[in-house]
Structures are given as structure tokens and as C-alpha cells.
Write a structure and sequence with these properties.
PCI_dom; Uu.00g140070.m01.CDS01; proteasome; globular; enzyme regulator activity; mainly alpha; CSN3
Length: 583
């Protein structure tokens, strides 16, 4: 062929013309002629175009300009593609968690229950009354002991007329593979009793559906029935599931009228139930319910501004050390808010800092991280510290923290006018975040900051100038504020009342004081605490040390036997293998 080098054209299946090809018996006469054909430049590829409007898999597809063949598997993909009904898929996903709960009971391992709970986030958008009714109907039989539980689940979602024991079409078409077993059982499938873990998991799905559909009254009544049933059971494999049920019960009560902080809110009537659950959890050493209920009670007290009761709860209870990380973060967050209201800013800063560090990095926990960061910023301002600018530039934080950024700017400069303007412009945002009452305390800090800036800028300044710069009402109020700042150690200066001025002292070397050492000590203490918590959170397989000890003993016995055989002359290097270097 012109324009191409003979013997270099690609042919079908990647075989060149200048290579020997093993053919079948019919083409055995052509064996060995590949080189000659390559020299003469003849093309051995024969392309037969497929007929129009036909799709036959026996005919090869056409080759391109260079002779390469493009395989078209689109028809095969279309043949094998099976469309899955979303309802069937959701039902299968729900039932797949039953096996995890069975393993959690059999192995007494709560990690399988937690895996089932984590699947709720992907299931909640697909839950409907029909899907839940079908799952409940196929899971329970009319003769089972849990039939009353199934009826209560169906009534909660408005499907009380659905009969129990009905199977789907796929389940009815199942054939027993063992005819002998079928004959023994009389062609009847044995009904397996549903474990309480499955009951509670389906109940949580019902709670999630009622909450997402905003049926708060129905959800509250159903949750009351569910918590009463949980209280009557004493199974450690139900701990994580029961904690989730109490959590949704609290959410339902928070949405009922009158809303908090009204003293007639239903959350006030929820407290005896939570306190009873806490007492029972402590007696049973139920860590999950204990940690969850403590967090819910603190949240309950904060919603109605009962700070003294929340402080008494913290004093008379001990939060479990091995609680889940999310519960620890929430507990520290509420502790920080309570301590900030009680004017214990140092403890509040420690708790809120730990809460922001323990907050999950997922998008679902972004709201919690924002709320904890807002309270932390206000507490740092109340302590006289200025937050770092990088905090306001974090991802997904810049827009939410913009009002607090303006607040920090006003406090840092000590401009009282800008501070009051910022509060007036963003008062609704601060009230919604719950930080408004704390921000109002910052007025004295703004004044102190302004006095500190002036003491650093001027060696001597009159009280009249201080009054004008800080927008104070009179020189007497300026004199009182300056005297209080000197007494509190905010500034190092002297006040001359006769001549009406403030004289600053020379500023010494800060590195000659104990302040850098104390800051360094705080960082070391935080790192050591983080290391200790990480070690406590590590998980190890059960009885793994016994298995390793057994394997080590067996290895030592094999070494002794091998050494004895070598000593007796029964083994040599060839018997031990080529990699044996010698004993």
C-alpha cells in the first residue's frame, strides 16, 4: 500500500503480517507465508461490514483507518443493566442492619450496633410510611411475642390496618433447597423471634420519620411509650440504641408549644423522666445512656436558663470517661456555656477550646463547631485576649463569624462607639446565638482596652482627653474607670487627681516575667492531656494477647524441635530450604 512501510500495519487481534500465525487445520497451508506476505506488502485483514439495521454479535465490528478494531459493548451493557426499584432497595438496606444487630448480640460487641445507627443518616431521606409498614409486616409474624410491639409501630405511622406476616413476592418464591428438611417441617418455614434490638432499631426509624415529617405530638407520645419499654429491659446490647431513643424524645419535647424558655414548656416535664433514666443507668453502669442523659439534662436546663440546677447536676454527677467523642464534645460545650455565665471565664475557655478540638470534622457537625467557636470568641474577649485573625478565615466559618469579627475589631481598638454600633446592627444574630448577654459585659472591657492603648501611646494624658476619646459622660466617670484599671492591674500608671491627668510607668521586659513560662506550661499540659485521651480511646481485639502468647509458645517449641533434630543429624541445610542461614 502506498505511503506506509510494508510489514508495519496493525492487523486484527494485534498480530502483524510479518509474524507466523498458528491457524486451524483449514488454514494450515498458509502457515509460514506471513513473512513473504509482509515483504510484498499485502494486507491479510479482511473486513466484512455488518448489514444495516441488524445487531449480530457473531459479526465483528468494522476496523478504523489503521486496522484497529473497536469493541462495542454498549449492547451487552444494556442487556445486563437491571433497574432496581428504590423502594425495594430501601427495604433491603433496612433489613441488612438486622444482621449487624444479631452479630452485636451474639458477639456482645456494641460496634455493630453503632454501624447500624450510622446508616440512619442515609436512610432517613428515603423513609415513608409504606416502606416502614412493609418492613414491619415482613419482619414480624402474628404469632410472635413481639406482635404487640409491631402493632404500636404501625399505629405510630398511621398504618394500623396493615396485617403482620405478609411477605413480598420475592420471599414467596423462595424454594427450600433441602427436600428432606422441607418434608420434616411440613413445608412450613419456621418463624424466628425478633430480638429487642431489632424492635428498638425500627422504633428509632419511626422516631426519625415522625420528626422529619414534623409530627411532634405523635412523636412525643410514641417516645414516651418507647422509653417506658426501654426502662423495663436490662440488656447491655441495647445501650447505644436506647441512648438514641432518649435523644429524639428530647427533640420532640423541645418542638412542642409553648416553646422554651417558657416555664410551661414540655421540656420541664421531661426532666423527671431523664433523671429516672440517669439513676437507672448509673446503677446498671450503662455508659451510653448515662452520658447521653447528662448532656440532655444540661441542654434542658440551659434552654430555660436554670443555671443553678445545671451546676448542681454537674456537681453531683460524674461524666463517664469512656463516653463517645461526640458526647464528650457536647458535654464540654455546655460546661463552657455554664461557666461563662457564672463569670468563671478561665474554666469556660478551657472547656470550649476542648469542645472545638473534639468537634467532628464532618459537614454534619459544622453547626456545632460554629456555635462553640462563637462562645469561645466571646469568652476570650471577656478575658482580655484578642482572638487570632486566622479563626475568622477558616473554611465555612467566615460568613457565620462576620458579626463577631466586627465585634473583635471594636474591642481591640477600644472604640466604644463602634462597639455599640455593632451590637445595635447585629443584636438579632447575637440573641439567636445565645451570646447577647455575654456580649453586653464587654463594654467595660472595651473601655479598659482603650485606656490600655492610651497608656502605651502617651506617657501622660489628661482625664478630659480620656473622656473625649472613650465617649464617656464626665471626667468623674473617667477618673473612676482609670482608678479601677490601675487597681486591677490592667495598666501600670499613676493618677494625679489634683492636676487631672494619668501618668504611665515605663514598660518592662515581658520575657523577664513568668508570663511566657506559664503560656508554655499551658501548651504542654494540653498536649499531654490529648495524648492521654488518645491512649484511652484506643481499641484492641479481645483476648488478642492470649493468641499472641500461644503463637509465641508454639514457635519456641518448633525451634526447640528443629534444633534438636539438627543436633541429632536428622536435618541439614538442604532439608530446611535454601534461605536457611544456620542456627
Amino acid at each position: 500500500m502506498p505511503g506506509k512501510t510494508p510489514g508495519k500495519e496493525p492487523v486484527e487481534n494485534g498480530i502483524r503480517n510479518n509474524q507466523d500465525v498458528d491457524m486451524t487445520d483449514e488454514k494450515s497451508s498458509m502457515k509460514g507465508k506471513g513473512k513473504k506476505a509482509g515483504k510484498e506488502g499485502e494486507d491479510m485483514t479482511v473486513v466484512v461490514p455488518p448489514p444495516k439495521n441488524t445487531k449480530q454479535s457473531s459479526q465483528p465490528p468494522p476496523a478504523d483507518a489503521e486496522g484497529d478494531v473497536a469493541m462495542d459493548d454498549s449492547d451487552k451493557v444494556e442487556d445486563f443493566e437491571v433497574k432496581v426499584d428504590p423502594v425495594t432497595q430501601t427495604i433491603a438496606d433496612i433489613k441488612s442492619n438486622f444482621a449487624l444487630l444479631d452479630r452485636a448480640v451474639a458477639l456482645f460487641d456494641s460496634r455493630f450496633s453503632l454501624r447500624a445507627l450510622r446508616s440512619i443518616s442515609s436512610l432517613r431521606k428515603r423513609l415513608t410510611p409504606d416502606i416502614l409498614a412493609q418492613v414491619i409486616s415482613e419482619t414480624y409474624s402474628p404469632s410472635s411475642t413481639s406482635a404487640s410491639v409491631a402493632k404500636s409501630l404501625l399505629q405510630a405511622i398511621g398504618k394500623g390496618d396493615v396485617p403482620l406476616g405478609s411477605q413480598s413476592g420475592a420471599a414467596e418464591m423462595e424454594i427450600d433447597s433441602d427436600p428432606k428438611a422441607a418434608s420434616k417441617n411440613g413445608n412450613k418455614k419456621e418463624t424466628k423471634e425478633v430480638i429487642p434490638e431489632v424492635d428498638l432499631f425500627l422504633s428509632i426509624l419511626v422516631q426519625v420519620y415522625l420528626f422529619d415529617s414534623k409530627q411532634f405530638e405523635v412523636g412525643s407520645n410514641f417516645s414516651k411509650y418507647l422509653t417506658d419499654r426501654i426502662h423495663s429491659l436490662n440488656r447491655r446490647t441495647l445501650d447505644s440504641l436506647s441512648a438514641k431513643a432518649y435523644y429524639y424524645f428530647s427533640l420532640f419535647c423541645e418542638q412542642l408549644a409553648p416553646l422554651p424558655p417558657s416555664p410551661q414548656s414540655p421540656i420541664v416535664g421531661l426532666r423527671p423522666i431523664l433523671l429516672t433514666a440517669l439513676r437507672t443507668a448509673v446503677l446498671r453502669k450503662d455508659t451510653d445512656i448515662q452520658a447521653t442523659v447528662i448532656v440532655l439534662l444540661l441542654r434542658n436546663y440551659l434552654l430555660t436558663s436554670h443555671i443553678s440546677q445545671a451546676d448542681l447536676l454537674i456537681t453531683h454527677t460524674q461524666f463517664p470517661e469512656n463516653a463517645a467523642n461526640t458526647l464528650v464534645a457536647r458535654f464540654l460545650y455546655y460546661m463552657g456555656r455554664i461557666r461563662a455565665i457564672q463569670l468563671r471565664y478561665t474554666e469556660a475557655q478551657d472547656h470550649l477550646t476542648a469542645a472545638t478540638r473534639k468537634a467532628p470534622a464532618s459537614v454534619c457537625a459544622l453547626g456545632f463547631a460554629r456555635s462553640a467557636t462563637k462562645f469561645l470568641l466571646v469568652v476570650e474577649l471577656l478575658m482580655g485576649d484578642i482572638p487570632e485573625r486566622a479563626t475568622f478565615r477558616a473554611n465555612d466559618m467566615e460568613e457565620a463569624l462576620h458579626p463577631y469579627f466586627l465585634l473583635v475589631q471594636a474591642v481591640r481598638v477600644g472604640n466604644l462607639e463602634d462597639f455599640e454600633t455593632t451590637i445595635a446592627d447585629h443584636a438579632s444574630t447575637f440573641r439567636r446565638d445565645g451570646t447577647y448577654s455575654l456580649i453586653l459585659r464587654l463594654r467595660q472591657n472595651v473601655i479598659k482596652t482603650g485606656i490600655r492603648m492610651m497608656s502605651l501611646s502617651y506617657s501622660r494624658i489628661s482625664l478630659r482627653d480620656i473622656c473625649i476619646r472613650l465617649h464617656l459622660g464626665s471626667e468623674e466617670s473617667a477618673e473612676y474607670i482609670v482608678a479601677k484599671a490601675i487597681r486591677d492591674g490592667v495598666i501600670e500608671a499613676t493618677l494625679d487627681r489634683e492636676h487631672g491627668f494619668m501618668k504611665s510607668k515605663e514598660v518592662g521586659d515581658v520575657y523577664a516575667t513568668r508570663e511566657p513560662g506559664e503560656a508554655f506550661h499551658d501548651r504542654i499540659r494540653a498536649c499531654l492531656a490529648l495524648h492521654d485521651e488518645s491512649v484511652k480511646a484506643m481499641r484492641f481485639p479481645m483476648n488478642q494477647h492470649r493468641l499472641e502468647l500461644k503463637n509465641a509458645q508454639e514457635a519456641r517449641e518448633r525451634e526447640r524441635e528443629m534444633a534438636k533434630e539438627i543436633q541429632d543429624g536428622d536435618l541439614d541445610e538442604d532439608d530446611l530450604g535454601g534461605d536457611f542461614e544456620g542456627m
